[in-house]
Specification:
about 700 residues, alpha+beta, Alpha-Beta Plaits, 5 domains, five-stranded antiparallel β-sheet, four-stranded antiparallel β-sheet, about 50% helix, flat
């Protein structure tokens, strides 16, 4: 493609302040949607770049072709025998086809295929200009953005994530004429809301970033974020500390600024007596500030804020931020002092007055359900349930405190502090603090056994309540966080090796719900959890789905046991004998199914006439004797390794023995032999489901 046939294409949508937590996703999706449509419309380019600030979304397609390439289109008409008579003269069918193609009879060609010879017509379709296609491409891309709730403004009925104020659209030096959201496209953008005035002219897409930077806007999200990261770290280091930050906070602050300027502020040392989590939540959640800690990991009475402008009086900006944060910390200190005047246990009676969820009783009712489940879980683990029961009964009391009312994200965390202040045992307090873990994918798991018990009880009650109300997740919608709850059960059970009879616990959770259950919720919940287990294995370890299914069909009751089986089958797949034994098991399963039997009838050793079947019988007896003690200790990998030694006897049997013989008694005995062989593997998994090539 000649250079003159292509030029950079730039589109920018200028808006009112976009939602900061959604900005990165909107930016990425705009670029993705635009790229897909350019490819669909056959407009090649050499790469896509995207930009986003609080007031704009923009995409640049480098070296975008000026027009689609011309296409040769072949249309096939009637067979030659139909298009021409015996004398070679065109028939009405040929004339009609030529008229349809818009050409004369002489322009028709002939195409030979395996099925015969046909009349055809080849025409050249001229490619459309990019300038004619781009308005619809951009409009469709914007309409496809994942915006759950669109805004309307003015009287035109237009909808977008925020009201739109300008549209820039350039292909090379030329404006792409379009009308989006009732606004005519042009070559002008706008700079920083306070540091720049009026419109800014962009002569060509390559000037875009420079023009904006001169107007105090860093349009590149990644570059702006790095400026913030470096600035925050430098500011924290200047006072001898390290910033307490996470990626989400950096992303959010980046999405709130166009010209970031980090500054350090301070607050009174007296506030350091507050729990660390309270100070961090006050600074990060309310103010989007970065707390600072010293080399020992203790919080300092300082923070870093990121201003959205370069002020001539930075001390005034600093003072303003300090004046904002001090009252918020003072409020937190007030809640901290007031909340401790009442023990958690003293708040229990008030839980009965707070509705948990319509149809599921009060929060007090839920605490009682959690206590019952926690007792059941502890007993299954062979533990004294006293601490777990106590932790469950007090687990939701912090919801009634002023601190949690102000900082909902601290529920559980503050419950632990208040439990300690109330003189509760350490195991109870720690469990209350761990009950919601893991809160998200990759989050920490409860470290204490009592915390693990309460966390599983909490998640099973959540699942049971929603399923009994008929509120299963559908599609991408999961307003009750049921997938997260199920994954939490999976991770705690598997990674902490909790050997629990999960169906039994689910049944107990369903029976305790104050709503009638159809009776199928227990199985539905177990299957729902198993689906999360499948996703866990696939996402975390790349497990082959067939390995998972080979274990799932056996429906182990314990997820820890399920995990041991999956690991054993995964190791078995790598054995030299695996492919042959998997194929043999599949063959055996088919034979037994066709014979209408899968029961393990006793084998009559006296009827074993063939040497190959006698050898297989002896090998099965030896293997069963060897693996029985291994099965009792769940040494599944060792079991399958031992069973892999059956391969020679199995192969010889199928080479030398006719199973479906006409002699009925002999046939039944051989089927019983195969059924016994298959049963050895089914104690762990159905390896007939494996495809090992």
């Amino acid at each position: 493609m000649a250079k003159a046939d292509a030029a950079d294409f730039l589109v920018e949508i200028g808006t009112e302040e976009l939602p900061p937590k959604a900005l990165r996703k909107l930016e990425a999706e705009f670029a993705t949607q635009l790229a897909e449509r350019l490819e669909r419309e056959r407009l090649p380019h050499s790469g896509i770049s995207s930009f986003a600030t609080p007031r704009r979304l923009a995409v640049l397609a480098a070296n975008l072709r000026a027009a689609q390439a011309d296409r040769e289109v072949e249309q096939r008409g009637p067979p030659v025998s139909v298009a021409y008579d015996r004398n070679g003269r065109p028939t009405p069918a040929a004339r009609a086809f030529a008229a349809k193609c818009g050409v004369g009879i002489d322009a028709l060609a002939r195409t030979k295929t395996e099925k015969g010879e046909w009349v055809s017509c080849r025409t050249i379709h001229a490619g459309k200009r990019a300038a004619d296609l781009l308005p619809a491409i951009v409009r469709d891309a914007l309409d496809s953005l994942p915006v759950p709730r669109r805004m309307r403004w003015g009287s035109g009925g237009y909808e977008f994530v925020r009201p739109v104020h300008w549209v820039l659209m350039l292909h090379g030096e030329d404006v792409v004429e379009a009308s989006l959201f009732g606004i005519a496209s042009g070559r002008h953008t706008r700079g920083h809301r306070f540091l720049s005035a009026g419109e800014l002219r962009v002569d060509r897409p390559g000037d875009y970033l420079r023009v904006l930077e001169e107007a105090f806007v860093l349009a590149d999200f990644g570059r702006r974020r790095q400026v913030i990261v470096d600035g925050v770290r430098n500011e924290a280091a200047s006072v001898g500390g390290t910033a307490v930050a996470h990626d989400d906070l950096y992303d959010e602050v980046t999405a709130l600024t166009e010209w970031p300027v980090p500054l350090t502020g301070r607050f009174g040392d007296s506030f350091l007596s507050l729990p660390r989590e309270v100070i961090v939540a006050t600074l990060t959640g309310h103010q989007r500030y970065f707390p600072i800690e010293d080399k020992q990991g203790r919080l300092m009475a300082a923070f870093v804020t990121v201003a959205n402008l370069e002020s001539k009086a930075p001390d005034r900006v600093r003072d303003g931020n300090e004046r904002v944060v001090r009252p918020r910390l003072a409020d937190a200190a007030f809640f901290w002092d007031q909340d401790r005047k009442l023990t958690l246990a003293a708040r229990r009676r008030q839980l009965a007055d707070v509705v948990y969820q319509k149809g599921l009783g009060s929060i007090g009712d839920r605490a009682v359900r959690l206590a019952g489940l926690s007792i059941a879980i502890a007993k299954q683990l062979g533990l004294d349930p006293a601490d777990a029961e106590r932790a469950a009964l007090l687990s939701k009391c912090d919801l009634l405190t002023g601190m949690v009312s102000e900082f909902p994200e601290l529920q559980g965390v503050m419950g632990r502090y208040y439990a300690i202040a109330s003189g509760e045992p350490a195991a109870v307090a720690d469990a209350i603090g761990e009950q919601y873990l893991p809160r998200f994918a990759g989050d920490l798991l409860p470290a204490t056994t009592t915390g693990q018990i309460l966390a599983i009880a909490d998640k099973l009650d959540t699942l049971a309540g929603a399923f009994c109300l008929g509120r299963k997740p559908s599609g991408n919608r999961d307003p009750f966080g049921l997938r997260r709850a199920a994954l939490g059960v999976v991770r705690i059970s598997v990674e902490r090796r909790l050997d629990l009879d999960l169906p039994q616990l689910i049944e107990k959770a369903c029976e305790a719900q104050p709503v009638a259950d159809s009776g199928s919720s227990g199985n539905d919940i177990f299957d729902f959890i198993l689906e999360r287990l499948r996703a866990y294995y696939v996402d975390q370890f790349g497990l082959a789905p067939e390995v998972f299914e080979s274990v799932r069909v056996r429906r182990p009751l314990s997820l820890a046991d399920f995990d041991s089986r999956v690991k054993a089958v995964s190791a078995f797949v790598d054995l030299e004998a695996a492919a042959s034994l998997a194929a043999s098991n599949k063959r055996i399963a088919n034979i037994l199914r066709q014979a209408g039997t899968d029961a393990c009838e006793p084998v009559d050793a006296g009827m074993l006439k063939d040497a190959a079947e006698r050898r297989l019988y002896e090998a099965i007896l030896e293997a069963k004797s060897a693996v029985t003690p291994l099965l009792s200790t769940r040494a599944y990998e060792a079991v399958l390794t031992r069973l892999s030694e059956l391969r020679p006897a199995v192969d010889t049997f199928f080479d030398d023995v006719m199973v479906m013989t006409d002699d009925e008694s002999l046939r039944r005995n051989r089927l019983a032999l195969l059924s016994g062989l298959r049963a050895l593997f089914l104690d762990i998994a159905d390896i007939s489901r494996l495809s090992i090539g």
